[in-house]
Amino acid sequence: MALHWQIVIALVAAFVMGALLGPEAAGIPLLSIYAFVGGMFLDALKMLVVPLITASIISAVASLGSASVVGALAGRTIVYYLFSTLLAVVIGLLVMNLLQPGMSGGQPLAQTAALPPIGDEVSGRLEGKQLSEFFNILRDMVPANIVEAGAEAQMLGLIFFSILFGIALTRVNPPGQQVVKDFWVGVQDAMILITHWVMRAAPIGVFALVAGVIAESGLSTLLPMLDFFFAVVLGLAIHALVVLPMALWLVTRRSPVRFMRVVWPALLVAFSTSSSAATLPVTLNAVTQGAGVSRETASFVLPLGATINMNGTALYECAAVLFIAQAYGVDLSLSMQALIVTLALVTSIGVAAVPSASLVAIALILGVLGLPLEAMGLLLIVDRPLDMLRTSINVYSDATGAVIIARLRGEDRVLMDARPEDIATDELASVGERS
After folding, report:
1. Confidence class of residue 216 from pLDDT cuts 50, 70 and 90?
2. In 3-state terms, what secondary structure has residue 25?
3. DSSP state of 309
4. What is the DSSP string of 384-412?
5. Fold of 3-434
Protein backbone atom coordinates (compact mmCIF):
# COMPACT_ATOMS: atom_id res chain seq x y z
CA MET A 1 0.00 0.00 0.00
CA ALA A 2 1.30 3.47 -0.91
CA LEU A 3 2.51 5.58 2.01
CA HIS A 4 -0.08 8.32 1.58
CA TRP A 5 -2.93 5.80 1.88
CA GLN A 6 -1.38 4.34 5.02
CA ILE A 7 -1.28 7.85 6.51
CA VAL A 8 -4.90 8.54 5.52
CA ILE A 9 -6.01 5.35 7.28
CA ALA A 10 -3.96 6.36 10.33
CA LEU A 11 -5.66 9.78 10.38
CA VAL A 12 -9.14 8.28 10.23
CA ALA A 13 -8.29 5.80 12.99
CA ALA A 14 -6.84 8.61 15.11
CA PHE A 15 -10.02 10.70 14.87
CA VAL A 16 -12.21 7.71 15.73
CA MET A 17 -10.16 6.40 18.66
CA GLY A 18 -9.35 9.85 20.03
CA ALA A 19 -13.03 10.83 20.05
CA LEU A 20 -14.39 7.50 21.35
CA LEU A 21 -11.81 6.52 23.97
CA GLY A 22 -10.66 9.93 25.21
CA PRO A 23 -7.47 10.44 27.25
CA GLU A 24 -7.87 7.21 29.26
CA ALA A 25 -9.56 3.84 28.79
CA ALA A 26 -9.77 0.88 31.19
CA GLY A 27 -7.15 2.49 33.39
CA ILE A 28 -4.66 2.82 30.51
CA PRO A 29 -3.25 6.36 30.16
CA LEU A 30 -3.76 6.63 26.41
CA LEU A 31 -2.80 10.29 26.32
CA SER A 32 0.65 9.54 27.74
CA ILE A 33 1.14 6.74 25.21
CA TYR A 34 0.10 9.02 22.35
CA ALA A 35 2.48 11.72 23.61
CA PHE A 36 5.40 9.28 23.86
CA VAL A 37 4.97 7.70 20.42
CA GLY A 38 4.04 10.93 18.64
CA GLY A 39 6.83 12.85 20.33
CA MET A 40 9.40 10.25 19.32
CA PHE A 41 8.27 10.40 15.67
CA LEU A 42 8.33 14.21 15.67
CA ASP A 43 11.80 14.23 17.26
CA ALA A 44 13.02 11.79 14.61
CA LEU A 45 11.89 14.17 11.87
CA LYS A 46 13.42 17.19 13.60
CA MET A 47 16.67 15.25 13.98
CA LEU A 48 17.01 15.27 10.20
CA VAL A 49 16.34 18.96 9.61
CA VAL A 50 19.67 20.66 10.43
CA PRO A 51 22.04 18.26 8.61
CA LEU A 52 19.64 17.90 5.69
CA ILE A 53 19.17 21.67 5.21
CA THR A 54 22.90 22.35 5.53
CA ALA A 55 23.95 19.58 3.14
CA SER A 56 21.16 20.30 0.65
CA ILE A 57 21.82 24.04 0.36
CA ILE A 58 25.62 23.73 0.20
CA SER A 59 25.34 21.02 -2.48
CA ALA A 60 22.76 23.02 -4.43
CA VAL A 61 24.65 26.32 -4.36
CA ALA A 62 27.98 24.67 -5.20
CA SER A 63 26.32 22.95 -8.17
CA LEU A 64 24.79 26.22 -9.45
CA GLY A 65 28.28 27.47 -10.16
CA SER A 66 28.32 31.23 -9.56
CA ALA A 67 27.01 33.95 -7.26
CA SER A 68 25.02 35.51 -10.12
CA VAL A 69 23.06 32.28 -10.70
CA VAL A 70 22.42 31.95 -6.96
CA GLY A 71 21.25 35.58 -6.86
CA ALA A 72 18.81 35.05 -9.73
CA LEU A 73 17.38 31.93 -8.07
CA ALA A 74 17.08 33.70 -4.71
CA GLY A 75 15.37 36.69 -6.33
CA ARG A 76 12.70 34.54 -8.02
CA THR A 77 12.17 32.58 -4.82
CA ILE A 78 11.64 35.64 -2.62
CA VAL A 79 9.31 37.32 -5.18
CA TYR A 80 7.16 34.18 -5.32
CA TYR A 81 7.01 33.86 -1.53
CA LEU A 82 6.05 37.51 -0.99
CA PHE A 83 3.44 37.46 -3.75
CA SER A 84 1.81 34.18 -2.64
CA THR A 85 1.71 35.34 0.99
CA LEU A 86 0.13 38.66 -0.01
CA LEU A 87 -2.56 36.81 -1.96
CA ALA A 88 -3.26 34.61 1.06
CA VAL A 89 -3.68 37.64 3.35
CA VAL A 90 -6.03 39.35 0.89
CA ILE A 91 -8.13 36.17 0.67
CA GLY A 92 -8.39 36.11 4.47
CA LEU A 93 -9.45 39.76 4.44
CA LEU A 94 -12.18 39.20 1.84
CA VAL A 95 -13.59 36.04 3.45
CA MET A 96 -13.83 37.64 6.90
CA ASN A 97 -15.50 40.77 5.56
CA LEU A 98 -18.02 38.73 3.58
CA LEU A 99 -18.90 36.12 6.21
CA GLN A 100 -18.37 38.22 9.38
CA PRO A 101 -18.11 35.28 11.82
CA GLY A 102 -17.58 37.74 14.70
CA MET A 103 -21.23 38.76 14.43
CA SER A 104 -24.09 36.77 15.94
CA GLY A 105 -27.64 37.65 14.94
CA GLY A 106 -26.48 40.98 13.61
CA GLN A 107 -24.80 41.85 16.91
CA PRO A 108 -21.11 41.71 17.87
CA LEU A 109 -20.27 38.47 19.66
CA ALA A 110 -19.20 40.42 22.78
CA GLN A 111 -22.82 41.52 23.26
CA THR A 112 -24.23 38.00 23.11
CA ALA A 113 -21.49 35.97 24.84
CA ALA A 114 -18.90 36.54 27.56
CA LEU A 115 -15.41 36.59 26.11
CA PRO A 116 -13.14 34.22 28.04
CA PRO A 117 -9.98 35.54 29.74
CA ILE A 118 -6.70 34.89 28.03
CA GLY A 119 -5.15 33.07 31.00
CA ASP A 120 -1.82 33.47 32.82
CA GLU A 121 0.12 31.02 30.63
CA VAL A 122 -0.66 32.78 27.37
CA SER A 123 -0.28 36.20 28.98
CA GLY A 124 3.27 35.31 29.98
CA ARG A 125 4.12 34.29 26.44
CA LEU A 126 2.72 37.51 25.02
CA GLU A 127 4.05 39.93 27.61
CA GLY A 128 6.58 42.47 26.33
CA LYS A 129 6.37 41.48 22.66
CA GLN A 130 7.02 44.45 20.39
CA LEU A 131 7.13 45.06 16.66
CA SER A 132 10.89 45.53 16.73
CA GLU A 133 11.35 41.90 17.76
CA PHE A 134 10.12 40.73 14.39
CA PHE A 135 12.63 42.89 12.58
CA ASN A 136 15.38 41.40 14.73
CA ILE A 137 15.00 38.31 12.55
CA LEU A 138 17.39 40.05 10.15
CA ARG A 139 20.00 39.92 12.91
CA ASP A 140 19.51 36.15 13.16
CA MET A 141 20.67 35.79 9.56
CA VAL A 142 24.27 36.20 10.69
CA PRO A 143 24.83 33.78 13.59
CA ALA A 144 27.72 34.48 15.91
CA ASN A 145 28.20 30.74 16.43
CA ILE A 146 27.14 28.40 13.64
CA VAL A 147 27.24 25.36 15.95
CA GLU A 148 24.93 27.11 18.41
CA ALA A 149 22.64 28.12 15.53
CA GLY A 150 22.42 24.48 14.52
CA ALA A 151 21.76 23.32 18.08
CA GLU A 152 18.96 25.88 18.49
CA ALA A 153 17.61 25.27 14.96
CA GLN A 154 17.99 28.90 13.89
CA MET A 155 17.04 28.21 10.30
CA LEU A 156 17.76 31.63 8.78
CA GLY A 157 21.27 31.65 10.20
CA LEU A 158 21.94 28.13 8.91
CA ILE A 159 20.57 28.98 5.46
CA PHE A 160 22.67 32.16 5.21
CA PHE A 161 25.85 30.34 6.27
CA SER A 162 25.14 27.42 3.92
CA ILE A 163 24.60 29.75 0.95
CA LEU A 164 27.79 31.63 1.79
CA PHE A 165 29.72 28.36 2.17
CA GLY A 166 28.38 27.05 -1.14
CA ILE A 167 29.35 30.23 -3.02
CA ALA A 168 32.82 30.17 -1.48
CA LEU A 169 33.18 26.51 -2.44
CA THR A 170 32.74 27.38 -6.13
CA ARG A 171 35.90 29.50 -5.89
CA VAL A 172 38.08 26.96 -4.10
CA ASN A 173 40.83 25.46 -6.25
CA PRO A 174 40.78 21.73 -7.08
CA PRO A 175 41.18 19.09 -5.81
CA GLY A 176 39.85 20.50 -2.52
CA GLN A 177 36.69 21.79 -4.16
CA GLN A 178 35.56 18.40 -5.47
CA VAL A 179 36.42 16.62 -2.22
CA VAL A 180 34.25 18.97 -0.15
CA LYS A 181 31.41 18.90 -2.70
CA ASP A 182 31.44 15.10 -2.70
CA PHE A 183 31.35 15.13 1.10
CA TRP A 184 28.19 17.28 1.26
CA VAL A 185 26.50 15.29 -1.52
CA GLY A 186 27.24 12.15 0.49
CA VAL A 187 25.77 13.71 3.63
CA GLN A 188 22.64 14.66 1.70
CA ASP A 189 22.26 11.13 0.30
CA ALA A 190 22.67 9.63 3.76
CA MET A 191 20.05 11.99 5.24
CA ILE A 192 17.58 11.12 2.47
CA LEU A 193 18.11 7.43 3.20
CA ILE A 194 17.50 7.99 6.93
CA THR A 195 14.37 9.96 5.99
CA HIS A 196 12.99 6.86 4.26
CA TRP A 197 13.67 4.77 7.35
CA VAL A 198 11.86 7.31 9.54
CA MET A 199 8.93 7.56 7.11
CA ARG A 200 8.26 3.84 7.41
CA ALA A 201 6.98 4.67 10.89
CA ALA A 202 4.97 7.67 9.68
CA PRO A 203 1.49 6.05 9.93
CA ILE A 204 2.14 5.13 13.57
CA GLY A 205 3.54 8.57 14.39
CA VAL A 206 0.70 10.37 12.61
CA PHE A 207 -1.88 8.25 14.43
CA ALA A 208 -0.35 9.04 17.84
CA LEU A 209 -0.02 12.79 17.19
CA VAL A 210 -3.58 13.30 15.93
CA ALA A 211 -5.23 10.90 18.39
CA GLY A 212 -3.54 12.79 21.22
CA VAL A 213 -4.96 16.12 20.01
CA ILE A 214 -8.50 14.74 19.66
CA ALA A 215 -8.38 12.87 22.97
CA GLU A 216 -7.15 15.92 24.87
CA SER A 217 -9.34 18.65 23.39
CA GLY A 218 -12.32 16.74 22.01
CA LEU A 219 -14.35 17.68 18.97
CA SER A 220 -16.99 19.40 21.13
CA THR A 221 -14.62 22.26 21.95
CA LEU A 222 -15.01 23.48 18.37
CA LEU A 223 -18.74 24.19 18.66
CA PRO A 224 -18.61 27.74 20.12
CA MET A 225 -16.26 28.86 17.35
CA LEU A 226 -17.57 26.97 14.34
CA ASP A 227 -18.35 30.10 12.30
CA PHE A 228 -14.79 31.40 12.66
CA PHE A 229 -13.33 27.92 12.14
CA PHE A 230 -15.16 27.36 8.85
CA ALA A 231 -14.42 30.90 7.64
CA VAL A 232 -10.68 30.27 8.06
CA VAL A 233 -10.98 26.81 6.47
CA LEU A 234 -12.80 28.39 3.50
CA GLY A 235 -10.02 30.96 3.07
CA LEU A 236 -7.34 28.27 3.25
CA ALA A 237 -9.27 26.11 0.78
CA ILE A 238 -9.60 28.97 -1.73
CA HIS A 239 -5.86 29.62 -1.54
CA ALA A 240 -4.92 25.94 -1.80
CA LEU A 241 -7.49 24.77 -4.35
CA VAL A 242 -7.86 27.86 -6.55
CA VAL A 243 -5.01 30.39 -6.25
CA LEU A 244 -1.97 28.09 -5.99
CA PRO A 245 -3.19 25.58 -8.64
CA MET A 246 -3.96 28.46 -11.01
CA ALA A 247 -0.47 29.90 -10.51
CA LEU A 248 1.02 26.44 -11.07
CA TRP A 249 -0.91 25.89 -14.30
CA LEU A 250 -0.25 29.37 -15.70
CA VAL A 251 3.52 28.96 -15.31
CA THR A 252 4.08 25.26 -15.95
CA ARG A 253 1.02 24.19 -18.01
CA ARG A 254 1.05 21.01 -15.92
CA SER A 255 -1.87 19.38 -14.11
CA PRO A 256 -2.47 20.75 -10.58
CA VAL A 257 -4.35 17.53 -9.77
CA ARG A 258 -1.28 15.46 -10.59
CA PHE A 259 0.83 17.77 -8.47
CA MET A 260 -1.55 17.40 -5.53
CA ARG A 261 -1.18 13.61 -5.76
CA VAL A 262 2.60 13.95 -5.74
CA VAL A 263 2.82 16.16 -2.63
CA TRP A 264 -0.04 14.51 -0.75
CA PRO A 265 2.23 12.52 1.63
CA ALA A 266 4.07 15.72 2.63
CA LEU A 267 0.76 17.52 3.30
CA LEU A 268 -0.43 14.68 5.53
CA VAL A 269 2.80 14.77 7.54
CA ALA A 270 2.55 18.57 7.80
CA PHE A 271 -1.04 18.24 9.04
CA SER A 272 -0.11 15.78 11.76
CA THR A 273 3.12 17.46 12.93
CA SER A 274 2.09 21.16 12.55
CA SER A 275 5.70 21.87 11.60
CA SER A 276 6.96 22.98 8.17
CA ALA A 277 10.56 22.35 9.25
CA ALA A 278 9.86 18.82 10.49
CA THR A 279 8.08 18.05 7.21
CA LEU A 280 10.96 19.36 5.10
CA PRO A 281 12.64 15.96 4.45
CA VAL A 282 9.35 14.56 3.15
CA THR A 283 8.67 17.67 1.03
CA LEU A 284 12.12 17.52 -0.54
CA ASN A 285 11.63 13.89 -1.40
CA ALA A 286 8.17 14.43 -2.94
CA VAL A 287 9.21 17.45 -5.01
CA THR A 288 12.43 15.97 -6.40
CA GLN A 289 11.30 12.38 -7.01
CA GLY A 290 7.58 12.91 -7.57
CA ALA A 291 7.49 16.29 -9.33
CA GLY A 292 10.81 16.01 -11.17
CA VAL A 293 12.33 19.22 -9.78
CA SER A 294 16.14 19.20 -9.80
CA ARG A 295 17.87 18.67 -6.48
CA GLU A 296 19.69 21.99 -6.89
CA THR A 297 16.45 24.00 -7.17
CA ALA A 298 14.49 22.07 -4.53
CA SER A 299 17.37 22.09 -2.05
CA PHE A 300 17.54 25.88 -2.27
CA VAL A 301 13.85 26.84 -2.52
CA LEU A 302 12.27 24.49 0.03
CA PRO A 303 14.49 25.14 3.09
CA LEU A 304 14.08 28.89 2.52
CA GLY A 305 10.32 28.43 2.19
CA ALA A 306 10.09 26.38 5.39
CA THR A 307 11.60 29.39 7.16
CA ILE A 308 9.98 32.46 5.61
CA ASN A 309 7.02 31.36 3.45
CA MET A 310 3.94 31.10 5.67
CA ASN A 311 0.86 31.54 3.47
CA GLY A 312 -1.53 29.75 5.81
CA THR A 313 -0.16 31.48 8.88
CA ALA A 314 -0.48 34.94 7.32
CA LEU A 315 -4.07 34.23 6.27
CA TYR A 316 -4.91 33.04 9.78
CA GLU A 317 -3.35 36.10 11.43
CA CYS A 318 -5.42 38.43 9.26
CA ALA A 319 -8.61 36.43 9.85
CA ALA A 320 -8.08 36.25 13.61
CA VAL A 321 -7.56 40.01 14.00
CA LEU A 322 -10.63 40.83 11.89
CA PHE A 323 -12.68 38.29 13.85
CA ILE A 324 -11.75 39.90 17.17
CA ALA A 325 -12.53 43.35 15.78
CA GLN A 326 -15.96 42.14 14.65
CA ALA A 327 -16.58 40.39 17.98
CA TYR A 328 -15.99 43.65 19.85
CA GLY A 329 -17.95 45.74 17.35
CA VAL A 330 -14.90 47.67 16.13
CA ASP A 331 -15.47 49.02 12.61
CA LEU A 332 -12.10 49.01 10.87
CA SER A 333 -11.55 51.52 8.07
CA LEU A 334 -9.94 50.58 4.75
CA SER A 335 -6.66 52.13 5.89
CA MET A 336 -6.73 50.06 9.10
CA GLN A 337 -7.42 46.90 7.12
CA ALA A 338 -4.54 47.75 4.80
CA LEU A 339 -2.37 48.03 7.92
CA ILE A 340 -3.54 44.58 9.01
CA VAL A 341 -2.56 43.16 5.60
CA THR A 342 0.91 44.73 5.88
CA LEU A 343 1.50 43.56 9.45
CA ALA A 344 0.29 40.01 8.70
CA LEU A 345 2.64 39.87 5.71
CA VAL A 346 5.66 41.12 7.71
CA THR A 347 5.08 39.12 10.89
CA SER A 348 4.37 35.86 9.07
CA ILE A 349 7.91 35.97 7.67
CA GLY A 350 9.35 35.92 11.18
CA VAL A 351 7.05 33.46 12.93
CA ALA A 352 9.31 30.43 12.46
CA ALA A 353 11.88 31.93 14.84
CA VAL A 354 9.39 32.85 17.60
CA PRO A 355 7.87 30.46 20.16
CA SER A 356 4.04 30.31 20.03
CA ALA A 357 4.48 32.14 16.77
CA SER A 358 0.95 32.84 15.58
CA LEU A 359 -0.30 33.89 19.03
CA VAL A 360 2.57 36.32 19.43
CA ALA A 361 2.09 37.75 15.93
CA ILE A 362 -1.66 38.17 16.46
CA ALA A 363 -1.05 39.85 19.83
CA LEU A 364 1.36 42.23 18.15
CA ILE A 365 -1.20 43.25 15.51
CA LEU A 366 -3.94 43.63 18.12
CA GLY A 367 -1.65 45.89 20.17
CA VAL A 368 -0.90 48.09 17.16
CA LEU A 369 -4.63 48.42 16.41
CA GLY A 370 -5.58 48.96 20.07
CA LEU A 371 -7.80 45.87 20.27
CA PRO A 372 -8.11 43.89 23.55
CA LEU A 373 -5.69 40.97 23.94
CA GLU A 374 -8.16 39.21 26.26
CA ALA A 375 -10.29 38.22 23.27
CA MET A 376 -7.51 35.90 22.13
CA GLY A 377 -8.90 33.38 24.58
CA LEU A 378 -11.52 32.64 21.94
CA LEU A 379 -8.86 31.69 19.41
CA LEU A 380 -7.33 29.09 21.71
CA ILE A 381 -10.45 26.94 21.31
CA VAL A 382 -9.75 26.28 17.64
CA ASP A 383 -6.06 27.15 17.35
CA ARG A 384 -4.73 23.58 17.38
CA PRO A 385 -6.80 22.13 14.50
CA LEU A 386 -6.34 25.32 12.48
CA ASP A 387 -2.60 25.15 13.15
CA MET A 388 -2.54 21.70 11.55
CA LEU A 389 -4.44 22.97 8.50
CA ARG A 390 -2.44 26.16 7.95
CA THR A 391 0.85 24.26 8.24
CA SER A 392 -0.31 22.02 5.40
CA ILE A 393 -1.01 25.13 3.30
CA ASN A 394 2.44 26.50 4.15
CA VAL A 395 4.07 23.30 2.90
CA TYR A 396 1.85 23.15 -0.19
CA SER A 397 2.86 26.70 -1.13
CA ASP A 398 6.55 25.83 -0.65
CA ALA A 399 6.23 22.82 -2.94
CA THR A 400 4.26 24.82 -5.53
CA GLY A 401 6.96 27.48 -5.49
CA ALA A 402 9.68 24.88 -6.09
CA VAL A 403 7.87 23.58 -9.20
CA ILE A 404 7.13 27.08 -10.54
CA ILE A 405 10.71 28.28 -10.05
CA ALA A 406 12.11 25.07 -11.57
CA ARG A 407 9.98 25.65 -14.68
CA LEU A 408 11.09 29.30 -14.89
CA ARG A 409 14.69 28.03 -14.81
CA GLY A 410 13.99 25.91 -17.87
CA GLU A 411 13.57 22.50 -16.20
CA ASP A 412 11.31 20.53 -18.53
CA ARG A 413 10.91 17.34 -16.48
CA VAL A 414 8.64 18.84 -13.82
CA LEU A 415 5.47 16.80 -13.30
CA MET A 416 6.23 14.56 -16.26
CA ASP A 417 7.36 11.08 -15.18
CA ALA A 418 7.33 9.69 -11.63
CA ARG A 419 4.24 8.53 -9.77
CA PRO A 420 3.75 9.21 -6.03
CA GLU A 421 3.98 5.50 -5.20
CA ASP A 422 7.35 5.31 -6.96
CA ILE A 423 8.98 8.08 -4.94
CA ALA A 424 10.64 5.96 -2.26
CA THR A 425 11.81 3.29 -4.70
CA ASP A 426 13.34 5.79 -7.13
CA GLU A 427 15.14 7.75 -4.43
CA LEU A 428 16.61 4.66 -2.81
CA ALA A 429 17.77 3.44 -6.22
CA SER A 430 19.45 6.76 -7.03
CA VAL A 431 21.22 6.81 -3.68
CA GLY A 432 22.40 3.24 -4.27
CA GLU A 433 23.77 4.10 -7.71
CA ARG A 434 25.76 7.06 -6.38
CA SER A 435 27.25 5.00 -3.56
Report:
1. confident
2. strand
3. -
4. HHHHHHHHHHHHHHHHHHHHHHHHHTT--
5. Proton glutamate symport protein (1.10.3860)
